[in-house]
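If I may wish for something, please walk me through the protein I am sending here so I can picture the backbone:
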Amino acid sequence: MSAQVRVAGVEFSYPDGRAALRGVDLVVESGERVAILGPNGAGKTTLALHLNGIYQPSSGTVTIGDLQVVEANFSEIRRRVGMVFQDSNDQLFMPKVRDDVAFGPANLGVTGAELEQRVQSALAAVGGEALADRPAHHLSGGERRRAALATVLAMDPDVLVFDEPSSDLDGAGRRELVSALSSLGLTQIVITHDLPLALELCPRAVIMREGRIVADGETRAMLVDATLLAENRLELPFGFQLGGPLEG
């Protein structure tokens, strides 16, 4: 495998001077699914927003495949890195779901049969064929999340980045989402407070605290380390065991 995402020595401060990232190093190989865990304010989303150039580091580099994330490469970088935001409404704004899915590739100049094929393939990848002609505001939370994912897949990305993908989903919506994500062969970076989701979806996890990566390894091994979880303000749901929820 080759490195799909490489973050080297990245530092970043907000305009008010508050340091958000403090020398972050991270390598994600092609096809890996990696969870980014940590308490609020750890720098997780800030790091994610460096992967497609929404934020740019004050020092250090971010590379996607063979391209450094710099302004000259933004157009291709933003095709390669698909961001699925926490609020699906940020990505669904057209009269019908198929229009939302077509929007990105159409802006790249894709038309006709190729555009229709992109739409159909993206919706099929998330089990969303039946959503094509429905307006987004008529969808359930889980359906909206899958429709938002389809809008990103239609751009033919190499890397998917998710910010709290399971937030506000009921049990059925969460299962649908996990099924969709598990079936995709793409490199995936999943920012989440949902530790069972991280365990189910991502063999590897990193933990961030105060702008630094403080742990990187097998997700299961991290989640059985009570001291590590406590130090980083992470907590499994009450009654949850690694084999599943407690019975009785």
